[in-house]
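Quick check before the chapter quiz. The format below is the same one you will see on the exam, so make sure you can read both the input and the output lines.
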Amino acid sequence: MSTKAIPQVLGFRRVSRRSTLTCRAPFDTLRGMSKGFQIAAGATLIALLMAWYAATNLAPGAAFTYYKSLDEFQNAADARAGKHSRVHGYVALGSIERDVAAMQVRFTVQGEPPHAQQGAPSALLPVVFGSLETPDLFKEGAEVVVEGQLVQTQDGGHFRADKVMAKCPSKFEGDPSADTRAASLN
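Here is the expected output.
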């Protein structure tokens, strides 16, 4: 058997020197698929990515958890169990204490805005935030959402905050003096 016959026996064919090898690009394979299959594959890929994103963010304490008002939190079993929670409230006037040595900020959260409340606040929650870096909008009377868990101590306990988020004040709140002027005109 000659050497010229071996490639033919094994199923190879002789390639001339002039011929070039062609390689198919990945987009060429997509052209061979039907449009319906391409749309279904793309929609499936998007659905899988969204499911992955939701599953990773629905872990305890993740971004898709909603906050509870201070009254809801204090009445819920989560508060007593020490579960990770988000609580909405307002920073009480005169309650912010920055402890540089311990690298923490202590403050009190109340359920109602301090400027709108009459008398003593009904519900108070002492908060300890384990960092000195607070949001720019964090100040007395600011609307905040604290994220963390309730820690029981000998002196009654406090909310150990992992995150403090200050909400932007609304620019569209009505002026109370304008309401009284409008009522006097009627």
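If your answer matched, good. The first helix runs from residue 6 to 9.
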